[in-house]
Amino acid sequence: MPDRLNRIDAEAVREHVRDGYAEIALAGYTAGVGGGCCGTSSCRSQATPTVDDVAKRVGYNEAELATLPDGANMGLSCGNPTALASLRPGEVVLDLGSGGGFDCFLAGPKVGTAGRVIGVDMTPEMIAKARRNTAAYRERSGLDNVEFRLGEIEHLPVADNSVDVVISNCVINLSPDKPQVWREIARVLRPGGRVAVSDLALLRPLPAAIQEMVAAWIGCVAGAALVSDTERYAREAGLTDIRLQQKREYVASMTSFEDPLYQRIVAALPPGTRPADYITSLNVTARKRE
């Protein structure tokens, strides 16, 4: 079974992740608060960062956040792929695991009226939330260039060679079949198209107890691949010019914020170690050959 899922059924993991993110979507919409990285609004503590705190820590600024529809930011980012992608007017952008539309609504103005942004998410509640947010995006931006499709990132509902840029923010690590995700990225990209992904990755394997924590899967940790494996998956999918940039400060900041999930991880780690010894935020850029 792919990606270290030795004792965990891949479809069961997918269902747990879907259920966890459905809860985040519903809690964020009904209560006006983000779910946080632990995967449920009920596990937040006073020390847990706000959704804006998380976004600012990973590279978003106040001006960007101010343009977003209410509730689009749910604090689920571990990087800023829209900035990493250097988006240009007229491009077609695909966001894998688009959630409430956070990065899609930031990408839309960058590609303008001649461009298009497609968000794909496997959670119906997230798609519904993103589509509700679209009306506010249109009103604020004056643009009608963002759409959302229900689907799994291992089987994208997108045509071959139809996308200029693929972005993703802390989502590929949730997939139980990451090589297939990278093959799908290569399939939908046009020749010369590029990838800009922010994800969580492992510096070394996690203890088995953490790999099997469902909450850790929902929080994007236990499902993360090794940094070296991430590079290999992209290369074997046929991508080139692959560049990896580690951003270890994200994990350190979540630990310092006393995020509930990271506190559970700390308790399961070998004595004398910390999450940042195992986990890093990783920026990945690559392109498809001409």
Flag low-confidence runs.
1-7, 29-47
Give the beta-strand count: 8
Return the domain count: 1
Question: What's the overall geometry?
Answer: globular
Q: What is the straight-line distance between the termini?
A: 33 Å
Main sheet, how many strands, which sense, barrel?
8 strands, mixed
In percent, how much strand structure appears in the residues? Answer: 15-25%
- Helical residue percent? 25-40%
Specify the CATH homologous superfamily.
Vaccinia Virus protein VP39
The CATH top-level class label: Alpha Beta
CATH fold call: Rossmann fold
Helix-strand category? alpha/beta
Average pLDDT for all residues = 83
CATH architecture: 3-Layer(aba) Sandwich
Distinct helical segment count? 12
* Rg measurement, Å: 17 Å
N to C succession of SSEs: HHHHEHEHEEHEHHEHEHHE
What does this structure look like?
Strands 1, 2, 3, 4, 5, 6, 7 and 8 form an 8-stranded mixed β-sheet that branches. 52% of the residues are buried. The chain has one domain: Rossmann fold (3-Layer(aba) Sandwich), CATH 3.40.50. The chain is α/β, with parallel strands linked by helices and 290 residues long. It is built from 12 helices and 8 strands. Mean pLDDT is 83; it is low at 1-7 and 29-47.
Key words describing this protein structure:
290 residues; alpha/beta; Rossmann fold; 8 strands; 20% strand; disordered N terminus
Write the layout of secondary structure elements.
Elements: H1 10-31, H2 51-57, H3 62-66, H4 81-84, E1 92-96, H5 102-111, E2 116-121, H6 124-141, E3 146-150, E4 163-169, H7 178-188, E5 189-202, H8 208-211, H9 214-218, E6 225-226, H10 227-236, E7 239-247, H11 249-256, H12 260-268, E8 279-288
Parallel strand pairs: 1-2, 1-4, 2-3, 4-5, 5-6
Antiparallel strand pairs: 5-8, 7-8
